């Protein structure tokens, strides 16, 4: 579904991603594991067109999406949940969802009601300003906001970062349910436990380069790689 | 999203203010009626600017240019052509919106201060055009004695006309800002990158916002001509645009009604302090310093924060 081939991304003169390639097939969850500053978020932003790569190719559903703007990618069916989980603080929870609503053909299955069924906690605070929510609620809202665009493919950037263990558990369950509903996910995580539980295949990134790629079982068994690239 | 926007209970104070303003002309002196009419015109202009500055987060530094375009359009139609009055009144806002579209197309490609700087440059071009083109615009003399039909030429009828147009515009603006379009505009102000990521074409949205705001600025320009019967290049000068910007800051640029308060303060200062000294801006400067220290959200912003939060909590409780 998503193919990233040899991308190089820069922030100004700084070379951040070096020849990053990855492939995510329809209906699976792939995780991108790496330490802080390894290049996970930059990879996500590059795919979403927020920091467009200078070299390489990105194709989505078989078509090149290089040079497309983020809003065009969102309309093509890519949802993006950023790591800083910035909600529109001035708007209510309901407004945050309503402005994101985008119906697209057959896949238009997410509505405000179905999102509230999925994240029940949000349903109770529809009128509350998003800036007043707790960290967990804000994270749910950012995922819910991305779901309202009715994506076929979801980029989840560190959804569990900074959340209480109980909230992490709930989120993990909900992300698993997204896969059951047929959504394809690329999950960037520092939390190995969550990533290994949820994913079908794993990529390990370090210093802007993909260092390892394999099935999640292989990655789970490969302690050497995990020790070398993922332990702090 | 429009559900429950106009509740009778909430609208009552505003209806009361409107009725009071309606019955004022026979009661208070003509001078104050004129000042009120000036406040209405200026308030509409400041409200239109606040649509893009406060609610849209755009540094629209030269909004006066569109006000001037609206005013000059109606003035030129009424003095240089034999077209009826209503054509001029309709053409003014549309000409302003067209100018907003043309300038906006270039400006929305930039962000923040760069947006504002380019707009000052392009708006100043309009000012220079008006200032220099003597044969058409009268240059720095402007155009005076613009004829108005009897039914709106008297001060009281102009007052009523301006008041009614203002109220209609305020209702339309309120509906726009409460609509999904307005909510999206505020979301863009908060975080344009995230808006792109959820599929919003940010530039197009901002451009539409600018066109709507400049349309209302054009209406304000038309009302100015109706009230004053003249136009002059200072309407398009960047200093006046700065004054409008200050009105939004004074009143509270994250509120709906703030710019009305800001316009009232500015016009009152210019009029009443101006009686005693030419340096009324000195008082304005002191006021601004005090505002920055004590009321950073503006006068109306402070009132809403102080007295509105309880109402907000009540609404939340009701919804539980």
Search tags:
heterodimer, A: 232 residues, alpha/beta, Rossmann fold, 6-stranded mixed sheet, 4-stranded antiparallel sheet, 10 strands, 35% helix, 27% strand, B: 320 residues, mainly alpha, two-stranded antiparallel ribbon, 15 helices, 2 strands, disordered C terminus
What can you tell me about this protein's structure?
The complex is a heterodimer of chains A (232) and B (320). Chain A has a 6-stranded mixed β-sheet with strand order 6-7-8-3-9-10, with helices on both faces. Chain A has a 4-stranded antiparallel β-sheet with strand order 2-1-4-5, with helices on one face. Chain A is built from 10 helices and 10 strands. Chain A starts with a strand and ends with a helix. Chain A has 232 residues and is α/β, with parallel strands linked by helices. Chain A has a single domain (2-229), classed as Rossmann fold (3-Layer(aba) Sandwich), CATH 3.40.50.300. In chain A, strand 9 and strand 10 (209-215) form a beta hairpin. Chain B is an all-alpha fold and 320 residues long. Chain B has one domain (8-238). Chain B has a two-stranded antiparallel sheet with strand order 1-2. Chain B is globular. The interface between A and B is medium-sized, with 28 and 24 residues.
